[in-house]
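Input structure tokens:
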């Protein structure tokens, strides 16, 4: 059985981006496959970023975005602790990451995920047992 997969907000945003139809289709299929297997994980930060991005950047109606947010929240949801903030700060310094990316990496590590799906982070990069995968790029 495959391990858990953490989703960065940019992948969730693509599920609503009709202007990028190929990425939208891929993001939807990936989410549905991982969610149906009980492997999808997000964090509170990812849910917040999703809502802000689709309502502000894509113009999705807030009531529709809220409904979608509720669906995403049915996956495994990680809430940060103070220790996660400290660990993320260390990751940011040690790996030269933006702090908010380091928070996402930290939450994926704490969730014991094998994969972090992200378009924005460096594909192939590893943090302990976690691998960054860009689902829109063929291996």
């Amino acid at each position: 059985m495959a391990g858990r997969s953490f989703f960065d907000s940019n992948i969730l945003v693509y599920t609503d981006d009709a202007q990028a139809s190929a990425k939208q289709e891929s993001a939807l299929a990936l989410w549905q496959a991982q969610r149906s297997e009980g492997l999808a994980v997000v964090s509170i930060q990812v849910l917040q970023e999703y809502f802000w991005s689709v309502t502000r950047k894509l113009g999705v109606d807030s009531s529709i975005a809220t409904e979608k947010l509720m669906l995403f929240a049915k996956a495994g949801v990680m809430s940060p602790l103070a220790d996660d903030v400290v660990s993320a700060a260390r990751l940011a310094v040690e790996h030269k990451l933006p702090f908010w990316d380091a928070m996402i990496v930290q939450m994926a590590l704490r969730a014991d995920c094998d994969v972090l799906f992200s378009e924005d982070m460096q594909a192939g990069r590893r943090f302990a047992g976690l691998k960054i995968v860009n689902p829109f790029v063929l291996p």
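The mean pLDDT is 96. The CA atoms of residues 44 and 79 lie 6 Å apart.
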